[in-house]
């Protein structure tokens, strides 16, 4: 009872006073240098852009005409071998888009090495949190945040180890790269960009990002759309999620081809017609479950996802690239650019695609029409039937027809992709 109400009042007033002064000081110091001067630019690009400097960036950007924060934040939300490299390239062609190819690879690597002994549930929650942190920082052009996860550790904000840097125009052209590389970007070799451009300077990458109107990120590492909720609700972002799905039978066929070591048992199964006891079916079943769970979430039309979710079947995009790309760009609020159209005509026509790209594991430059259902010639009926049983819900939700005989499987004149219209933006 020593503490009287007067003391309490005094304390409250004092604390309010301190806060008020702090706010005043902050506002005064901001309002003066921001408009039209270079002090924001200096703050923005000097050293690390995180923590307090991130706030400077936000506050300054309102009034700094030539470099606002990116307005649209596009997430190409996909799974391994679902056509996401191809789809990502459509976004990458747009001159106003800063595109990053699977930045979460580095986070997963860091976690896998350091914490494989942690319990899986804890692992998953912490990992998803780190994923979201990185996405948020990339969307606000703080590329330095990425340095935390890159191995070996970047020196002087420089690295030679960014995963698939060559997939991003912005990271391989001025100002990030001094070389004039027109035309080279079609090269199938993953390492051409670091070879030509040298190590990546994260400060330059952040500047390049800020000079673009929009940021697009492709990831295959977030399991379910619900895992992105805090990002859709973040007032700093205007997130648009393109959920790219593909027939799980095609995904499996593509994985077996691309990762032959990991899928050796499947290869044996396919070749011999007998299922080896050690074949691992969990990867494909969780892929199916994740696709269905995301779709189920989206169909419930939760407020946090309204207008921010587009379902895109890779097969529709491959069969009708121009219209589907237009739909995608309309959804994210961008105009189709001439470069996008040029890229489409170059990569979806058998006659003009460069043959040198055909055998490359991550090549996107193929005849997309021919590849959409080519998996039907690459999987034994026995495997197909097994997947149809494991993923029956996913197939029926997404409109992929099951086959009931080997003859039906191989008969390409009957498509297994049911015509479906999914609501453009659920
Ligand atoms: C994780 O370990 C692998 C294999 O030992 C190594 O190649 C990779 O660079 C490591 N990654 C990190 C982030 O430490
Ligand atoms: C990276 O780019 C920034 C901005 O141009 C520059 O100040 C810095 O010196 C560069 N870092 C290195 C190691 O060259
Ligand atoms: C599966 O076997 C068929 C022949 O039975 C073959 O043409 C195809 O390439 C094989 N698929 C894979 C992924 O190895
Ligand atoms: C999928 O298979 C399960 C188990 O056999 C069954 O309960 C479910 O109804 C099937 N779903 C569809 C869409 O056929
Ligand atoms: C392939 O399917 C079409 C359409 O269902 C059918 O008319 C045709 O006879 C089938 N071809 C073979 C070789 O079974």
Automatic annotation (TrEMBL):
SUPFAM superfamilies: P-loop containing nucleoside triphosphate hydrolases. Residues 72-397 form the Sulfotransferase domain. Residues 1-23 form the signal peptide. Gene3D superfamilies: P-loop containing nucleotide triphosphate hydrolases. It is an enzyme of class 2 (transferase). GO terms for molecular function: N-acetylglucosamine 6-O-sulfotransferase activity. Its EC number is 2.8.2.-. Keywords: Signal, Transferase. One of its GO terms (biological process) is N-acetylglucosamine metabolic process. Pfam families: Sulfotransfer_1 (PF00685). The keyword Signal applies. InterPro entries: Gal/GlcNAc/GalNAc_ST (IPR051135), P-loop_NTPase (IPR027417), Sulfotransferase_dom (IPR000863). Belongs to the sulfotransferase 1 family. This is Sulfotransferase. The lineage of its organism: Eukaryota, Metazoa, Chordata, Craniata, Vertebrata.
């Amino acid at each position: 009872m020593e503490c009287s109400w007067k003391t309490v009042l005094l304390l409250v007033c004092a604390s309010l006073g301190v806060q008020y002064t702090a706010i005043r000081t902050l506002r005064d110091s901001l309002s003066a240098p921001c408009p039209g001067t270079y002090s924001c630019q200096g703050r923005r690009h000097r050293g690390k852009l995180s923590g307090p400097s991130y706030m400077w960036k936000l506050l300054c950007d309102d009034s700094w005409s030539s470099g606002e924060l990116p307005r649209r934040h596009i997430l190409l939300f996909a799974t391994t071998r679902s056509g996401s490299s191809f789809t990502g390239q459509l976004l990458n062609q747009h001159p106003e888009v800063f595109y990053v190819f699977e930045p979460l690879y580095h986070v997963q690597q860091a976690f896998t090495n350091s914490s494989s002994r942690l319990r899986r549930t804890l692992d998953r929650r912490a990992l998803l949190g780190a994923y979201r942190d990185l996405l948020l920082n990339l969307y606000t052009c703080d590329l330095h945040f990425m340095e935390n996860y890159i191995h070996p550790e970047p020196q002087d904000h420089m690295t030679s180890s960014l995963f698939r840097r060559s997939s991003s125009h912005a990271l391989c052209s001025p100002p990030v790269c001094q070389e004039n590389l027109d035309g080279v970007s079609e090269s199938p070799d993953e390492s051409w960009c670091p070879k030509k451009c040298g190590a990546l300077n994260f400060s330059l990458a952040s500047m390049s990002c800020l000079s673009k109107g929009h940021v697009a990120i492709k990831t295959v590492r977030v399991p379910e759309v619900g895992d992105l909720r805090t990002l859709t609700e973040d007032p700093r972002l205007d997130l648009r999620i393109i959920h790219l799905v593909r027939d799980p039978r095609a995904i499996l066929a593509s994985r077996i081809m691309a990762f032959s070591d990991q899928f050796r048992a499947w290869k044996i199964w396919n070749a011999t017609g007998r299922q080896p006891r050690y074949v691992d079916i969990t990867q494909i079943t969780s892929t199916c479950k994740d696709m269905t769970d995301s779709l189920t979430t989206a169909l419930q039309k939760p407020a946090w996802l309204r207008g921010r979710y587009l379902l895109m079947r890779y097969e529709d995009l491959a069969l009708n690239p121009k219209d589907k790309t237009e739909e995608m760009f309309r959804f994210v609020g961008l105009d189709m650019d001439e470069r996008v159209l040029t890229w489409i005509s170059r990569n979806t026509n058998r006659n003009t695609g460069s043959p040198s790209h055909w055998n490359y594991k991550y090549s996107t430059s193929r005849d997309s029409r021919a590849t959409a259902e080519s998996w039907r010639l690459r999987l034994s009926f026995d495997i197909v039937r097994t997947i149809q049983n494991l993923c029956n819900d996913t197939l029926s939700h997404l409109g992929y027809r099951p086959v009931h005989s080997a003859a039906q499987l191989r008969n390409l004149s009957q498509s297994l992709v049911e015509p479906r219209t999914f609501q453009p933006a659920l």
